[in-house]
């Protein structure tokens, strides 16, 4: 582990300069601006280890656990620069989910065992939340964990588990009790070694013909009770508590920003800027992006001032995901008959992965809480409307 | 509803908001609008005098002219609060736009006279510069031994019936002139038309109107620049007012849908209504973010950034207020279609302001043209 310093003592601009220059020198060129949104661990392990060696893998973990200990303001800079420089996404459930959960709620033994193995890349984590009949309504999950001496016996199925096929540990939400009237009670967080007998993974090809999510089956999988995080039956609150200011990033303008640059490239090459119809549609998209940045900045400023985000931050996610879709839809309009083709489109200024982005843009209105779920949260939490069901 | 968020370390903006709320209690916006509409007037003189008394008319006029010398932040907060209260006197034209033109004029007695009158409310100084297409439409100017003689038609003049002075855009041999013309000048006639928001908008006809050369406030490039700057200032003021209208319309609609019971429950409890309300609220949030951004840019940004931010803000705030009030009206049901219900007044005011100084699509196309030209 390399030496650390108090990054929060730097100004945002100073930190940005330090971070940018190191990333530019160290993020391998062939990994920049990858076509794939969710590369598997082996594809990006070189970058993972470089970050780990530098001590920059876990921006939010306290330094005593090997993180950078960034505050929210510096974290925004970290994420912005990461996107701007086109760094590939690394399998980050250990860094962003399991790690913070253990740091906040784990036992000393759990922290000592798991945290270093996340940083070293020995443990690659995935998130076992959704089930075939528990998606938006996550609290209805049914994967069960039955106590048997010092162990739990897990049975059931998870689905839409991102990158499970390259993970060896899974953070699992399981049902340990069905007695309670309230469904959220009786859910427990379990840390499960995926190499345990009875655990199998089946990748699901997605719209882009890539396997980035999977089904995970549990057939009498034996898990030590020591792998429970927090209290038994009290896992729901833990699962909800992990996401703090990171919710802002679901609405970060980086994806639509990237897409509109590709749209501009394509439109320039195909002469679309001579078409007043296109220009009017483009202008709408361009100003939506411009104002998304203004709205993002409004929330970022709350964090910079040391404040806490409210439920209203969901507005960014809804707007951002829909804008991303509308930009990629316009790409296909500009592509004309070529939109029948699977491969990237050629232009004088480089290729444009129009179809790739079009398909990729279908996901963000679904994941991270579908936009309809977000609207429900806003209706209740911000507008103060009565419950609708 | 959050509305504009601007740095307010001194608490001055909060005080300004409070004083508008107090004003609105004494001068009810919707009632004033209805009375003004019924009388065919283009300005409510009681409200206007009270606004002068409050010191709001010369908010951005420089201190050297006796103004408050405040900035876009204060002006925007004032306009937002007036929008919320549906105070619909033409402040953006008579105070912001005229004020910016006067501030940019060459120093002199006429400039000071106009500034004094504008601030005290003793003079109603109406800008008169638009052609029939809404863009700058300078009328013909000709220098004579008696001064300058003006002829032509000017469209979209606010408060022309109440005006004491017009700030007229003219051109002589391709050179722009900005002149002060008394409203009672010989050869000047006013044809007023009722507006959607219960006021009057006039076409001025000038037939050989002669003014002395001292009436020229500025000329040539300085006049062009002054007008451009004044338009941007007025656009930003109107954007802020539109934010106020949109946020108030949502607040009222939420209250109404919580109160209105059908099928045994408040209609705000139905998911389809909730999602509509959330969409409306989200549009208001983005409008507020865009306008807040534009206000900050006026202090911080480069020239191009400042201009782009205003174009974006006016387009966003206009679209938001118009569509929010339209959807609000729908959620009020048949009640929304009555003249008694204020939501219709908010909707009409939003449509009128949205059409003022550039519709959203026009502004967006200008934004893209400017940005691409600079790239």
UniProtKB/TrEMBL annotation, chain A:
Cofactor(s) needed for function: FAD
Q: Which UniProt keywords apply?
A: FAD, Flavoprotein, Oxidoreductase
Which Pfam families does the UniProt record give? Acyl-CoA_dh_1 (PF00441), Acyl-CoA_dh_M (PF02770), Acyl-CoA_dh_N (PF02771)
- Gene3D superfamilies, from UniProt? Acyl-CoA dehydrogenase/oxidase, N-terminal domain, Butyryl-CoA Dehydrogenase, subunit A, domain 2, Butyryl-CoA Dehydrogenase, subunit A, domain 3
Please list the residue ranges annotated as the Acyl-CoA oxidase/dehydrogenase middle domain.
126-221
Q: Tell me the SUPFAM superfamilies matching this sequence.
A: Acyl-CoA dehydrogenase C-terminal domain-like (SSF47203), Acyl-CoA dehydrogenase NM domain-like (SSF56645)
What Gene Ontology terms describe what this protein does at the molecular function level? flavin adenine dinucleotide binding; oxidoreductase activity, acting on the CH-CH group of donors
Gene Ontology terms: cellular component: plasma membrane
Instruction: Provide the family line.
Output: Belongs to the acyl-CoA dehydrogenase family.
Recorded protein name is: Acyl-CoA dehydrogenase
Higher taxonomy: Bacteria, Pseudomonadati, Pseudomonadota, Alphaproteobacteria, Rhodobacterales
From TrEMBL, chain B:
Superkingdom of source: Bacteria
- Pinpoint the Acyl-CoA dehydrogenase/oxidase C-terminal domain residues: 228-367
One GO MF term attached to the UniProt entry: flavin adenine dinucleotide binding
Q: Which cofactor does it need?
A: FAD
Q: Which Pfam families match?
A: Acyl-CoA_dh_1, Acyl-CoA_dh_N
What are the residue boundaries of the Acyl-CoA dehydrogenase/oxidase N-terminal domain, all occurrences included? 15-98
* Keyword Oxidoreductase among UniProt keywords: yes
Its signal peptide is none
Its keywords, alphabetically, are: FAD, Flavoprotein, Oxidoreductase
Family per UniProt?
Belongs to the acyl-CoA dehydrogenase family.
Full protein name: Acyl-CoA dehydrogenase
């Amino acid at each position: 582990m390399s030496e650390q310093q108090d990054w929060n003592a730097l100004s945002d601009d100073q930190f940005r300069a330090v971070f940018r220059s190191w990333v530019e020198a160290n993020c391998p060129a062939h990994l920049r601006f990858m076509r794939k949104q969710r590369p598997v661990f082996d594809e990006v392990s070189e970058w993972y280890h470089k970050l780990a060696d530098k001590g920059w893998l876990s921006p939010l973990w306290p330094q005593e656990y090997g993180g950078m200990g960034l505050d929210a303001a510096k974290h925004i800079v970290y994420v912005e620069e990461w996107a701007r420089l086109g760094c590939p996404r690394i399998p980050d459930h250990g860094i962003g989910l399991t790690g913070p959960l253990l740091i906040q709620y784990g036992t000393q033994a759990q922290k000592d065992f798991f945290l270093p193995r996340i940083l070293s890349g020995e443990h690659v984590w995935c998130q076992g939340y959704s089930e075939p009949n528990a998606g938006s309504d996550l609290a209805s999950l049914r994967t069960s964990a039955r106590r048997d001496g010092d162990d739990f016996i897990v049975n059931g199925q998870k689905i839409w588990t991102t990158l499970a096929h390259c993970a060896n540990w899974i953070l699992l939400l399981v049902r340990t009790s069905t007695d309670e009237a309230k469904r959220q009670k009786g859910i427990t967080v379990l840390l499960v070694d995926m190499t345990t007998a009875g655990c199998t993974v089946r990748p699901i090809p997605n719209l882009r013909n890539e396997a980035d999510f999977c089904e995970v089956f549990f057939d009498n999988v034996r898990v030590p009770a020591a792998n429970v995080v927090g209290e038994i039956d009290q896992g729901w609150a833990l699962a909800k508590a992990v996401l703090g200011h990171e919710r802002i990033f679901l609405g970060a303008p980086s994806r639509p920003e990237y897409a509109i640059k590709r749209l501009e490239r394509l439109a320039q090459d195909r002469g679309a800027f001579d078409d007043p119809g296109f220009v009017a549609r483009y202008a709408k998209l361009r100003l939506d992006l411009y104002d998304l940045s203004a709205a993002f900045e409004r929330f970022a400023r709350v964090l910079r001032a040391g404040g806490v985000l409210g439920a209203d931050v969901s507005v960014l996610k809804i707007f951002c995901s829909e804008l991303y879709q509308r930009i990629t839809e316009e790409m296909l309009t500009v592509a004309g008959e070529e939109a029948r083709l699977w491969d990237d489109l050629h232009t004088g200024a480089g290729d444009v992965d129009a179809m790739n982005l079009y398909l990729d843009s279908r996901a963000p209105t679904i994941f991270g809480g579908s936009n309809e779920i977000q609207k429900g949260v806003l209706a209740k939490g911000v507008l103060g409307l009565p419950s609708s069901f | 509803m959050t509305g504009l968020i601007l740095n307010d370390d001194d608490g001055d903006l909060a005080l300004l908001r409070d004083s508008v709320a107090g004003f609105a209690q004494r001068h009810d916006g919707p009632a004033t609008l209805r009375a003004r509409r019924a009388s065919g007037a283009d300005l409510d003189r009681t409200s206007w005098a009270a606004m002068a008394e409050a010191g709001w008319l010369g908010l951005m006029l420089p201190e050297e002219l006796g103004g408050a010398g405040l900035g876009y932040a204060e002006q925007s907060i004032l306009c937002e609060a007036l929008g919320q209260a549906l105070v619909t006197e033409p402040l953006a034209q008579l105070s912001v736009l005229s004020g910016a033109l006067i501030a940019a004029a060459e120093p002199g007695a006429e400039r000071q006279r106009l500034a004094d009158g504008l601030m005290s409310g003793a003079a109603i100084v109406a800008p008169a510069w638009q052609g029939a297409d809404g863009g700058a439409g300078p009328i013909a100017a000709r220098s004579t031994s008696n001064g300058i003689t003006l002829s032509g038609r000017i469209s979209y003049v606010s408060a022309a019936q109440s005006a004491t002075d017009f700030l007229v855009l003219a051109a002589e041999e391709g050179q722009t002139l900005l002149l002060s013309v008394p409203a009672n000048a010989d050869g000047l006639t006013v044809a007023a038309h009722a507006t959607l928001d219960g006021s009057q908008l006039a076409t001025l006809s000038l037939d050989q109107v002669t003014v002395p050369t001292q009436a020229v406030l500025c000329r040539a490039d300085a006049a062009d620049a002054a007008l451009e700057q004044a338009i941007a200032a007025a656009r930003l003021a109107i954007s802020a007012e539109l934010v106020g209208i949109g946020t108030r319309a949502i607040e009222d609609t939420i209250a109404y849908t919580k109160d209105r019971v059908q099928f045994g429950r408040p209609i705000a409890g139905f998911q389809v209504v909730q999602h509509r309300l959330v969409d409306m609220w989200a549009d208001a949030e983005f409008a507020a973010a865009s306008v807040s951004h534009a206000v900050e840019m006026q202090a911080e940004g480069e020239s191009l950034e400042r201009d782009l931010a205003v174009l974006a803000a006016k387009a966003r705030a206009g679209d938001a207020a118009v569509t929010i009030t339209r959807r609000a009206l729908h959620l009020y049901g048949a009640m929304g279609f009555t003249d008694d219900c204020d939501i219709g007044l908010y909707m009409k005011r939003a449509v009128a302001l949205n059409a003022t100084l550039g519709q959203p699509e026009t502004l967006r196309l200008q934004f893209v043209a400017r940005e691409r030209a600079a790239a």
